[in-house]
Write a structure and sequence with these properties.
hpI Integrase, Chain A, 18 helices, elongated, five-stranded mixed beta sheet, three-stranded antiparallel beta sheet, DNA polymerase, domain 1, single chain, 3 domains, Double Stranded RNA Binding Domain, alpha+beta
Length: about 425
């Protein structure tokens, strides 16, 4: 590594002595002109990083766009940063971030690979379309250093005004994910969106699906959720068992006793902290066995500890399921009702629909309360809470079997008669 008295004439004609050669400046220690074998010339500053204690290199620019005088000035500035305990590379990133705009950040963000597979994400084009359509025209010129919560409202409000709450929620999630990534990469010192809630999705809180909607939903799941067979099965099980999406998505083999035809939820997995036994109908067992078959390992290793709906090192999260459903609700000219072909619904609406249908079949409220593990119904009064320890297991099984039979006729489009419990069943 030769040390020379750099001049503009020398910088313009210095040869490469190999793949690349570094010529260190005698005047400013640490400054070097790097010349590659193809003639490219660039400036760098070598130093000992205050952050790691190791030797490091910081790029200062290319020659001749960055002159010798300018390079020396930058090297002196970098030397001062090191003496002040700062890594010049960190300072450069912060300076770049200060000049970077929202529009400039988007391409860098979209280039990042999927965190698990390392491959480009399949949803990149969708994210790019949403951000370029809704965000860039309104706040694309805002510098990251000046980004504020009110800027988010600037692009969310017009979407809500168009009465597209689902799209607004998706755009918000895309933008928030990008900002969080920018913080991790050092483009931002902190997350200016911290504490912001996504826009509320306008879905009725008392929505109950009709028979026609149930049939359309059930039959259309393979197309609507084509990328996630797991989500298809979770949606079906939510409707068949009347349980919460978080409980369904988190099923483990240890909770299942298929011989006894039971799903035994421990208290730590239920909303109210009380253990809960869900009788399994034939329909529920078929769905569960299909999921188990997909989880069969290629080796002889025991798969008993593997979640029914695995994702990474754990189970598929209910948030991921909700987002998948939310995306399928997005409207287009080809699909004005979204991919499901019916008005928007939530996974909790499936639970409400199942309970409403069982009520129509004559299932007593106390039995319904035990099916959905509602303490407010099963132990509402002092008398029930203190004296009633009956589990209603037989009535729960009869009700869920009856509902599964009814659901089968609905989804098949048949007019098979289902006898209600009021006609001689339990309840």
């Amino acid at each position: 590594m030769p040390r020379v008295a750099l001049t503009d004439r020398f910088c313009a004609s210095a040869p490469s002595l190999g793949v690349r050669s570094d010529y260190f400046d005698e005047k400013v220690p640490g400054l070097a002109l790097r010349v590659t074998e193809n003639g490219h010339r660039s400036w760098c500053y070598l130093f000992t990083s205050p952050r790691s204690g190791k030797r490091a290199r910081s790029t200062l620019g290319s020659y001749p766009s960055t002159s010798l005088a300018a390079a020396r000035g930058k090297a002196v500035e970098a030397k001062g940063q090191v003496e002040a305990g700062q890594d010049p590379r960190d300072v450069a990133i912060a300076q770049e971030a200060g000049a970077m705009t929202v529009a400039g950040l988007i391409p860098s963000y979209l280039e990042k690979p999927h965190r698990r597979t390392g491959k480009p994400r399949k949803s990149v084009k969708e994210i790019e379309r949403r951000l370029n359509r809704n965000v860039v025209p309104l706040i694309g010129d805002v510098r990251l250093a000046d980004l504020h919560k009110r800027d988010v409202n600037r692009f969310i409000a017009p979407i809500m005004k168009r009465k597209r709450p689902i799209e607004a929620a998706r755009v918000f999630e895309d933008f928030r994910a990008m900002v969080r990534w920018a913080v991790k990469q050092g483009y931002l010192d902190h997350n200016p969106l911290e504490g912001m809630e996504p826009p509320a999705v306008s879905v009725e809180g008392d929505r109950v699906l009709t028979d026609d909607e149930i049939r359309t939903l059930w039959q259309g799941l393979p197309d609507a959720l084509a990328r996630s067979v797991q989500c298809q099965r979770i949606v079906k099980l939510c409707l068949v068992t009347a349980q919460r999406v978080g409980e369904v998505a988190g099923i483990t083999p240890a909770e299942l006793d298929l011989k006894a035809r039971e799903w035994r939820l421990p208290g730590e997995r239920t909303k109210n902290g009380h253990p809960h036994v869900v009788p399994l109908s034939d329909l529920a067992i078929r769905i569960i066995k299909d999921a188990m078959a997909d989880n069969e390992p290629e080796t002889n290793e025991d798969s008993g500890s593997k979640p029914l709906f695995p994702c990474g090192d754990g189970s598929l999260s209910p948030v991921a399921v909700a987002r998948t459903v939310l995306r399928a609700h997005e409207k287009s000219q080809e699909r004005p009702l979204g991919r499901f072909g019916i008005a928007p619904w939530s996974t909790h609406d499936l639970r409400r629909t199942a309970v409403s249908e069982m009520a129509k079949l004559g299932v007593a409220p106390i039995v319904l309360g035990h099916i959905i593990n509602h303490i407010s119904v099963t132990k509402a009064g002092v008398t029930l809470k203190v004296y009633s320890h009956y589990s209603y297991d037989r009535e729960k099984r009869a009700a869920l079997d009856l509902w599964a039979e009814r659901l089968g006729s609905i989804t098949a489009g048949t007019t098979a008669k289902v006898i209600s419990v009021a006609s001689g069943g339990v309840g």
